[in-house]
Design brief:
By secondary structure, the protein is α/β, with parallel strands linked by helices. It is built from twelve helices and 15 strands. Helices cover 33% and strands 21% of the residues. α4 runs parallel beside α5 and α11 runs parallel beside α12. The N terminus is likely disordered. The protein binds phosphoenolpyruvate and manganese (II) ion.
Length: 389
């Protein structure tokens, strides 16, 4: 396993585990399930952990067998009551990992939008909500350009305690109402505390659930394990987990696994650049070369954040902004989501104005995204032809 991943990639997990995928009709109160659990309880040195995935129509149950599963025979396990399929997986990223012969899907749907390793969604919007007028101008532009997703920061983790911290719950009602008015289905919104989750829930209820929210865990909280557990325990909202800016990829992927191990596997993994002076003059060292790596190691859709990676509106001699160049690079490598800062009046923005794209640039940005996506799909087809020749 280690060799297949490359020498510099250290694996922390050593053993293997087994997943029992139960048939979709399984009733956890029924006699078959009880019989199965009794049998598993009798296995020496093995712990069984039940994971329930609630879909729109039915609940799917999986049982993770942790411990010494080596002596267990796959064929034997397959004959147990309720068991439809048995998969042996490596310990690493048990739930979100991409394992051999693993039939579990690499996508999820939320509020009518599909997020998968095969799709591409753009989340253009405000780094930080400042006032209703700017929110409305942003959302109107998105609607005019056929967009149903956006980013709207209400809770901002800031380096300085004296910097604007975001309007928090006070802005949620108008953000959600305006999102509904302009047909927005999913808003990516960072939370930094459990109370923010409750505030978002309450504001959505009060406004009649006009939109959906994808909770964002920011790079400063990637290893805030208690926050990960809290967010992982709810299945109402999907989660965008940003890669930690100063830790290894393996550590960030394990952070994603925290969410899944607590019950929420609707996780998108976000690349946003690494903190090092080696990336200068960019704000962070752009790490979109890891798009295919994360897709290979896990079943998570991969998001790129070109704005926080690059951090400026600097342009190359060809006239194209670095933010747009790296966006195209990430998409051409197969990225599934783009989180990007726009602002109707960047000089008035309270956070990250210097890296924001302008509303008049939105249609051009989206066309550039389309070109890069086409190029990616052409590249995939080209390589398939090469392999079958
Ligand atoms: C953001 O997306 O607003 C943000 C703060 O990103 P990050 O956590 O990647 O710095
Ligand atoms: Mn920002």
């Amino acid at each position: 396993m280690a060799a297949a991943l490359g020498n510099s990639f250290t694996l922390t997990g050593k053993g293997y585990t087994m997943i029992l995928i139960l048939s979709s009709s399984t009733d956890q109160q029924g006699p078959g399930f009880r019989q199965l659990m009794n049998h598993l309880a009798g296995l020496q040195g093995i712990t069984a952990r039940v994971h329930t995935e609630r879909g729109a129509e039915q609940a799917l149950t999986e049982i993770y067998l942790i411990g010494n599963t080596k002596p267990l025979d796959i064929e034997d396990m397959q004959t147990l009551p309720c068991v439809e399929r048995v998969v042996r997986v490596s310990e690493e990223y048990r739930i979100l990992g991409r394992h051999k012969d693993d039939p579990r899907p690499a996508y999820f749907e939320y509020n009518g939008v599909r997020f998968g390793q095969d799709t591409l969604n753009v989340f253009a919007g405000l780094c930080a909500v400042d006032n209703p007028e700017h929110v409305e101008l942003m959302l109107k532009a998105l609607k005019e350009n056929g967009q149903v997703c956006t980013r709207m920061g209400a809770y901002k983790p800031r380096t300085s305690p004296y910097a604007f911290q975001g309007h928090g719950k006070n802005c949620l009602p108008y953000v959600f109402e305006l999102a509904g008015k302009y047909g927005i289905k999913v808003i990516a919104m960072e939370i930094t505390h459990e109370s923010h989750l409750n505030e978002i829930r309450e504001a959505l209820e009060q406004t009649g659930n006009p939109t959906g929210v994808m909770l964002q865990i920011g790079t400063r909280n990637t290893q805030n394990f208690e926050l990960l557990k809290i967010v992982g325990r709810q299945q109402q909202f999907p989660v965008l987990l940003k890669r930690g800016f100063g830790i290894t990829l393996d550590e960030s992927l394990n952070a994603a696994e925290y969410l899944a191990s607590e019950g929420n596997r609707n996780v998108v993994f976000g690349l946003r650049g690494m903190k090092t002076n080696m990336g200068d003059p960019h704000r962070n060292f752009v790490d979109f070369a890891h798009v295919p790596v994360v897709k290979r190691l896990t079943r998570m859709p991969v998001c790129i954040d070109p704005s926080h990676s690059v951090g400026t509106r600097a342009a190359a001699p060809d006239g194209i902004l670095d933010v747009m160049h790296v966006t195209a690079q990430g998409i051409m490598a197969g990225a599934n989501m783009v989180l990007v800062d726009f602002h109707p009046a960047p000089t008035k923005a309270l956070v990250d104005g210097p890296q924001a794209l302008l509303l008049k640039e939105l249609p051009y940005f989206l066309e550039d995204v389309r070109i890069a996506r086409e190029a990616y799909l052409e590249r995939v087809a080209l390589w398939e032809n090469c392999q079958s020749a």
